[in-house]
Design goal:
This protein is 38% helix and 24% strand. It has 190 residues and is α/β, with parallel strands linked by helices. The protein has a single domain, classed as Pyruvate-ferredoxin Oxidoreductase, domain 3, CATH 3.40.920.10. The protein has a six-stranded mixed beta sheet, sandwiched between helices. GO terms for molecular function: oxidoreductase activity, acting on the aldehyde or oxo group of donors.
Length: 190
């Protein structure tokens, strides 16, 4: 059976790195894994999404509407934008974090209120202040790894040697903070 995970965020949040680490881990576990990424103006704070499908045999990386078991969202409004891809009974893990768009920064639009409550009322949702937790560790950029830890726990993928994967695929200077961030994320779903 093929499983589908959608990671969504804003350019610069580390969505692609978290996706690549997940893909490496799934591949090492023996799954056939396909990943597709969309960078939509990511250098300017635009939407970034990564679709990961894994199982015994995966023919295509693209997740259709209503097919994702799990959406991992790095930013609140991005969660809302991608909800149509979640399958009935699917789950959401989201960062309690807002990045205002350019029209919001200029005052032409207002950040929508109540998104977390609206999403939580519809589907099983775990809200993690991943950005705050990463900042507490002294490594704000490891917010993506906090969310990766939560994703791993939510999907029951804890038997994979994530420490080894991070050691081999992240910068040595960030390794210890990344490992701490990963454990924080896993602990949120204890």
């Amino acid at each position: 059976m093929t499983k589908s995970i959608l990671l969504v965020g804003v350019g610069g949040q580390g969505t692609i790195l978290a996706s690549k680490l997940l893909t490496i881990g799934l591949g090492q576990e023996g799954y056939d894994v396909k990943m597709s990424e969309i960078h939509g103006m990511s250098q300017r704070g635009g939407s970034v999404s990564t679709q990961i499908r894994f199982g015994e045999q995966v023919n295509a990386p693209v997740i259709g509407l209503g097919e994702a078991e799990l959406i991992v969202a790095f930013e609140e409004e991005e969660t809302y934008r991608w909800m149509k891809y979640l399958k009935p009974g699917g789950k959401v893990v989201m960062n309690k974090f807002r990045i205002p768009s350019s029209p919001m920064l200029t005052g032409d639009e207002v950040y929508p209120e109540g998104l977390i409550d609206e999403i939580s009322a519809k589907v099983e949702t775990t809200v993690i202040p991943a950005s705050e937790e990463a900042a507490k560790l002294g490594s704000p950029q490891s917010m993506n790894i906090v969310l990766l830890g939560a994703l791993v726990k939510a999907m029951g993928l804890t038997d994979i040697d994530w420490e080894k994967i991070m050691k081999e695929n992240t910068k040595p200077a960030f390794l210890e903070k990344n490992l701490q961030a990963f454990r924080v994320g896993m602990d949120y779903l204890a």
